[in-house]
Design a protein that fits this description.
Length: about 190
C-alpha cells in the first residue's frame, strides 16, 4: 500500500505531539522510544525513519511543546493591550486548569528542573525556545521584568503542583498572581 507524499510528515507530527505530551507528563527520563512509537501503533524499528536518536526525539519534542504552547496560550491574546495582555497571561498561567493539565502545559514549568541535567543539545533547544518565549513579554514589561515575571509564573506553577492539598495549591496560585501583578506595577 502506497501512502501519499505527506504521510511521513503527518506521522512525524503525531509522534512529536505524543512525545511532547509524554515528556511533560512523565519527565524526560521516563519517556521511551517504545512508548512514543507505540502511541502511533508503530514499531521501534521505524523510529530512525523519523529521528536520529532519543536525544533528537527529546529535543524535537521540547521544541514542539514550546511551539504548540505558544500557539494555544499566547497567540490567542497577542492583540490585547499591554495591561490586558499582562492580566490575561498571569491569570491563565496561574490557573487551576494549567496546574492540572500537565501534559498540555508550558514546558518551562514541567521540564526546567530536568533540563538542567540533560545533554547540551537538549539544554540549548530549551534555552533558545525560552528566549523566544521571553521576547513576547519584553515589549510589555521590559527585559528584566520579563525574566523575573516568567520565573515567578513558572516557579509558582511548579510549586502549586508539588503540594498535596488542593486548597494550599490554590493559595499558592493566588499568592503568585498577587505577586506577579505587583511586579508588573512596581
Amino acid at each position: 500500500m502506497r501512502y501519499p507524499a505527506s504521510h511521513k510528515e503527518e506521522v512525524h507530527q503525531k509522534l512529536l505531539k505524543n512525545a511532547s505530551e509524554q515528556i511533560r507528563e512523565l519527565g524526560l527520563d521516563n519517556v521511551s522510544v517504545k512508548s512514543v512509537m507505540k502511541s502511533e501503533r508503530m514499531t521501534v524499528g521505524s523510529f530512525y525513519a523519523h529521528f536520529d536518536s532519543k536525544d533528537d526525539l527529546l529535543k524535537s519534542a521540547i521544541e514542539y511543546a514550546f511551539a504548540t504552547t505558544n500557539l494555544e496560550f499566547y497567540d490567542k491574546i497577542e492583540k490585547r493591550t499591554d495591561a490586558s495582555w499582562n492580566k490575561k497571561v498571569i491569570e491563565r498561567y496561574l490557573s487551576d486548569y494549567h496546574r492540572d493539565t500537565i501534559a498540555l502545559s508550558c514546558p518551562v514549568a514541567t521540564l526546567m528542573s530536568e533540563v538542567s541535567r540533560a545533554s547540551d543539545d537538549i539544554r540549548a533547544a530549551f534555552e533558545n525556545n525560552l528566549k523566544e518565549l521571553l521576547k513576547r513579554f519584553e515589549p510589555r514589561v521590559g527585559k528584566a521584568k520579563a525574566t523575573g515575571l516568567f520565573a515567578l509564573l513558572s516557579g509558582g506553577l511548579l510549586m502549586a503542583r508539588s503540594v498535596e492539598s488542593e486548597e494550599y495549591s490554590d493559595e499558592i496560585l493566588n499568592d503568585c498572581i498577587k505577586s506577579a501583578r505587583a511586579l508588573i506595577k512596581g
